[in-house]
Amino acid sequence: MISNMCWTPPPRTAAATGGKRIGWAEITLVEPEIGNAIEGNVMSVPEQIGAVVPDAPSSLSTSSSAASASPSSAAPRAGRWARRAIGAGAAWASTLALFALWALCTRSPAGTRALPSPGEVAAAFVAMCDEGVLWPSVRVSVLRVLAGLAVGVALAVPAGVVSGASRIGGAIVDRPVHMLRAIPFPALAPLLIVMLGIGEAMKVALIAIGAFALVYVNVRDGVRAIDPRLLELARAYRMPRHVVFTKILLRGVLPQFMTGLRFAITVSWIALVTCETVNSSAGIGYLLARAQQFFRTDQMVLCIVLYAALGLLSEWVVGALERLAHVRG
What we know:
- The protein has helices spanning 24-30, 58-105, 118-131, 134-165, 167-181, 185-196, 200-224, 228-236, 241-276, 284-293, 297-328.
- By secondary structure, it is an all-alpha fold.
- It starts with 23 loop residues before the first helix and ends with a helix.
- Mean pLDDT is 77; it is low at 1-8 and 13-70.
- This is Binding-protein-dependent transport system, inner membrane component.
- It is found in: Cell membrane.
């Protein structure tokens, strides 16, 4: 029976090496009794093998390492802040450029142009705030979007998981959802009025349909993109179903879900315009329809600016949720 043995060659002298200095690799392998042969450092050995290499004082090494570490750690941090500032400045610079172009295009007298100026829109904002109809309408619209988005996401996530994880589920759910996506909102509104009436249920249902389709498609594709070897490993270790769902499926689907949520919020605001123009007494869409009826272009542009601001705020909220989910994940 052969046992594992380590062969060490005989020690080599300076005469055997021709008076040359022995390199690091030879000392580590041939003469392991040298105490200062530290693995991972490249160093040369003194001509006298028995000489001891003095260590540097600990205070000096500590101060030098701290002095060298502080600039190196501060430089990347300053670079990150600089890049963030440049990115934010570029984003707001393009927005301010659009407002400046708008102001330049509306410098002519009011009777000679159809587009109102930023000053006229600001005056309409103040007038509608004094009238007491602006902020209640904004609150009603936000609540409708949140309610429809919550219903759509609550239905889309399990449907997307079933469709992505099972061929039978995909065959049952996938085709009707694609047909529903192809129907425009103005065509769905009369059918929902017949089925649900002209109250809030119709408005929430129309927003939920728009949000459902986009979240469903992204969740389904995210489930299909999960590595099947992870699921096989979970089956091999007999992991509980709730652990597989939370640790594998949800974490794997999270990036696609956040992408679908971004698109769903945008489509929810678009669906809100359609549903609020039907028998509404409050909401941004109601203000827009009223301004169109009385040909108040300043109020119409104000409603459009409100939609853009709320969409930008929604995008920021989704981005914050995505960063929070990545940090906790």
